[in-house]
Amino acid sequence: MSLLPLWFDDSLMTPSYTRREAARRNLWDEVIQPLALVNSLLDIKNLNESLQQHTSPQAVLEKDKFHANFDVQHFKPEEISIKVTGDNAVTIEAKHEEKQDEHGQIYRHFLRKYVLPKNCDTSRLESKLSSDGVLSITAPIIGDKVDRNIPISQTGKPARSVQNKPENAS
């Protein structure tokens, strides 16, 4: 057996450009690639947050009204229905019937249900559909939950009239 193959496999015998290339690969594998991955994950997180802000329904309970916005731009106005049930809940539903295209069938269904506060006037609930496909629902709140002082007015007259007692006939 010869020692000749061991001499040629020695790392000191390899050209210097090969060692630099190996160092670059190690730098890429250990430092740059993980940083690029973290950066892309941060971009995905920011994208997800911005998408949720623009597409998710937003329901807000203010002191004088309940207000909610929904993105229904993929539905025609006649495909959207809003119902108020007896338990003070409002249901927003949109159904897009199946239609055939070159890739298959399309079917969309949107359903949201909100239980409104007891003091919401559901008989005066309003809905508006904007030209860019945002459905807004508003219901006013009746009555104040805030404590208030009731002023006292003085009449200046007695509430009960005083009657003279009849004299005893003795």
TrEMBL record:
<dbReference type="GO" id="GO:0042026">
    <property type="term" value="P:protein refolding"/>
</dbReference>
<dbReference type="InterPro" id="IPR008978">
    <property type="entry name" value="HSP20-like_chaperone"/>
</dbReference>
<keyword id="KW-0346">Stress response</keyword>
<dbReference type="InterPro" id="IPR002068">
    <property type="entry name" value="A-crystallin/Hsp20_dom"/>
</dbReference>
<feature type="region of interest" description="Disordered">
    <location>
        <begin position="148"/>
        <end position="170"/>
    </location>
</feature>
<dbReference type="Pfam" id="PF00011">
    <property type="entry name" value="HSP20"/>
</dbReference>
<dbReference type="GO" id="GO:0005737">
    <property type="term" value="C:cytoplasm"/>
</dbReference>
<dbReference type="GO" id="GO:0005634">
    <property type="term" value="C:nucleus"/>
</dbReference>
<dbReference type="GO" id="GO:0051082">
    <property type="term" value="F:unfolded protein binding"/>
</dbReference>
<dbReference type="GO" id="GO:0009408">
    <property type="term" value="P:response to heat"/>
</dbReference>
<comment type="similarity">
    <text>Belongs to the small heat shock protein (HSP20) family.</text>
</comment>
<feature type="domain" description="SHSP">
    <location>
        <begin position="46"/>
        <end position="155"/>
    </location>
</feature>
<protein>
    <recommendedName>
        <fullName>SHSP domain-containing protein</fullName>
    </recommendedName>
</protein>
<feature type="compositionally biased region" description="Polar residues">
    <location>
        <begin position="151"/>
        <end position="170"/>
    </location>
</feature>
<dbReference type="InterPro" id="IPR001436">
    <property type="entry name" value="Alpha-crystallin/sHSP_animal"/>
</dbReference>
